[in-house]
Automatic annotation (TrEMBL):
<dbReference type="InterPro" id="IPR036737">
    <property type="entry name" value="OmpA-like_sf"/>
</dbReference>
<keyword id="KW-0998">Cell outer membrane</keyword>
<dbReference type="InterPro" id="IPR011990">
    <property type="entry name" value="TPR-like_helical_dom_sf"/>
</dbReference>
<dbReference type="Pfam" id="PF00691">
    <property type="entry name" value="OmpA"/>
</dbReference>
<dbReference type="Pfam" id="PF13181">
    <property type="entry name" value="TPR_8"/>
</dbReference>
<dbReference type="InterPro" id="IPR006665">
    <property type="entry name" value="OmpA-like"/>
</dbReference>
<dbReference type="InterPro" id="IPR006664">
    <property type="entry name" value="OMP_bac"/>
</dbReference>
<protein>
    <submittedName>
        <fullName>AmpA/MotB domain protein</fullName>
    </submittedName>
</protein>
<dbReference type="InterPro" id="IPR050330">
    <property type="entry name" value="Bact_OuterMem_StrucFunc"/>
</dbReference>
<dbReference type="InterPro" id="IPR019734">
    <property type="entry name" value="TPR_rpt"/>
</dbReference>
<feature type="domain" description="OmpA-like">
    <location>
        <begin position="165"/>
        <end position="285"/>
    </location>
</feature>
<keyword id="KW-0472">Membrane</keyword>
<dbReference type="GO" id="GO:0009279">
    <property type="term" value="C:cell outer membrane"/>
</dbReference>
Amino acid sequence: MHKYFFYCIAAAIIFSIDIFGGTVFAHDCEKANILYHQAMSTAQGKERLDLLNNSLAAFPTFAGFYESGRTLVAMGRLTRAEKAYNEAKTLAGDDISQAKVYVSLGTVYEKLDRLEDAYTCYKLSKGYHQFPKVVKKIMAMDEVRSKEGVLSKSIVNRLTTVSKAYGVEPAIDLYVHFELNSDQLKEKGLVQVKELGKAMRNPVFLKHHFVIIGHTDSQGDQEDNLRLSKRRAKTVKSWLKKNYGLPDHRITTKGRGEEELLYVQNSEQAHALNRRVEVRLRIEN
């Protein structure tokens, strides 16, 4: 018996002790369990989906919604798969299950070419459990962001629509490139700061305050890294004030050095992706 159906039956037994109708509740769980196993013993396709839908109609479970999502993806019905996975997310009983749902949602969004949503879901999955393949995927996506930069439109979208949709803090990591062990911007870094400036001047942020946080990798002296991260954040702020007229009181800078690494691997790729500038959004009082 799938563990989520075990929870269902256990809950039914508890409720049936004191609450009228508990027997019906337990019967619904048993019916859902039988239909679920019938579905999983059939080939992929409409027959399996119909059985899963009948199982969910009898009693909604994580397993039922999750497998419905997988079946719908195999059938190419991505919008319905997204809905099924979101339902599964509300019923996930542990971190592994939450992580699996976010990975599945990320896969759906990649197929739909909603790459910012896919990226967000993969990162949320990593927060619950670090599946090695998912970590590699996020690193690959971050490497693309580092090489190509993030456009102002995407920065605005990340800090507004995407953050709100997933209930996460409005924040974004940008790969602002500096000279080695220096707070001097490279040409590539300047391009990214310009995109950030365009985003920050968007009217949607008129009542918001920005926190710019510098991050380094774990190479070198820890105190030196902390000081360097603070200087780099201040460099970004100074450039934005000078070239985009952003007022001083709307931007705060901080440095975290190597305290908040995105990746713990001791590789050049991981070190490069840990060197970044994070932008967080705050609503001004």
